[in-house]
Design a protein that fits this description.
Blueprint (H helix, E strand, L loop, with lengths): L11 E5 L14 E5 H15 L12 H17 L8 H13 L18 E5 L6 H9 L10 E5 L3 H9 L10 H12 L5 E2 H14 L7 H7 L8 H8 L4 E6 L3 E6 L2 H11 L1
Antiparallel strand pairs: 1-2, 3-4, 5-7, 6-7
Helix pairs in contact: 1-2, 1-3, 6-7
The structure holds zinc ion (ZN).
The site of zinc ion has 6 residues, from α1.
Length: about 270
């Protein structure tokens, strides 16, 4: 994201986006692969800009700097090196470190980022437990009590924008047998199924009903649904009461019948 170098196992390591020294969590949502020298330069930037740790000791006097540093961290991860210019005091320290190491700054147009656009929100920390408070008092840790935490709201911002801009889709009045066959096929499956597998399964279902073997999309198209509609859109438009879906990553979608528990409950009662 900074220098544009091609990453390999040898020249890269894992960076905590929100530094551990500033309260960042040690989980994958807070990690990114980065070239080793940029990673070191980011760490050095923190120490030049904020001074040596521990940072809670400087609170609240250093809060303005801590905040700018964390925001610079987040924005460069999500929008690339040049976006760091929004926080010039931090950015120029980082650039001068890279340049003094003889490292050229050639930000790439694409990199392995977090995948999501993130809204950065500042939240108050949870109240500490009783014993934590006792020990904090004994060891003079009081000042961290009111340190706000920068959290990353992992909603997919890009998707929200698309949804807002998208014009209303036209929902056609189509023959009920379209819904009937999709629901009949899906209701024979226990739990969730990914869309790709369901699509293959649906072709077998059609064959078993002496119907023409075709893909889900072709099947929908044969009822007049435009080819450009994704199956997710079809679910939203025609099956919002019956089918649930959830995305896993960028491409995998799982679908399942809604209210399955209700059906199972009624079936048990019959017994
Ligand atoms: Zn780099």
């Amino acid at each position: 994201m900074h220098c544009g170098i091609r990453l390999t196992r040898k020249n890269s390591n894992t960076e905590h986006i929100h530094d551990r020294a500033l309260g960042g969590i040690n989980e994958s949502s807070n990690k990114i692969i980065m070239c080793t020298s940029c990673n070191l330069a980011r760490n050095k930037t923190m120490q030049i800009y904020l001074g040596p740790p521990s940072y809670w000791q400087g609170f609240p006097g250093n809060w303005d700097r801590v905040k700018k540093y964390l925001l610079w961290n987040a924005v460069t991860v999500d929008k690339g090196h040049d976006a760091g210019e929004s926080y010039p005091e931090v950015h120029h320290i980082f650039e001068s470190i890279l340049q003094s190491n003889g490292k050229p700054i050639k930000p790439p147009s694409h990199w392995f980022g977090r995948g999501n656009y993130c809204d950065i929100i500042v939240t108050e920390p949870k109240r500490r437990g009783f014993w934590i408070r006792v020990f904090d008092r004994i060891f003079g840790y009081e000042s961290s009590q009111n340190t706000p935490v920068i959290a990353v709201n992992r909603t997919n911002h890009r998707e929200n924008i698309e949804e807002r801009v998208k014009p209303e889709r036209e929902i056609l009045k189509i023959d009920e047998s379209f819904r009937h066959h999709i629901l009949a096929a899906l209701s024979t499956i226990q739990g969730e199924i990914d869309l790709a597998t369901f699509s293959s399964y649906f072709q077998l279902y059609l064959v078993s009903k002496d119907m023409r073997k075709q893909s889900l999309k072709q099947f929908a198209h044969s009822f007049g649904i435009p080819k450009r509609r994704s199956f997710i859109e079809i679910i939203e438009d025609y099956f919002s009461n019956e089918i649930d879906y959830r995305r896993v990553g960028q491409t995998v979608v799982y679908i399942t019948m809604k209210n399955r528990e209700v059906f199972e409950y009624l079936a048990n009662e019959d017994e």
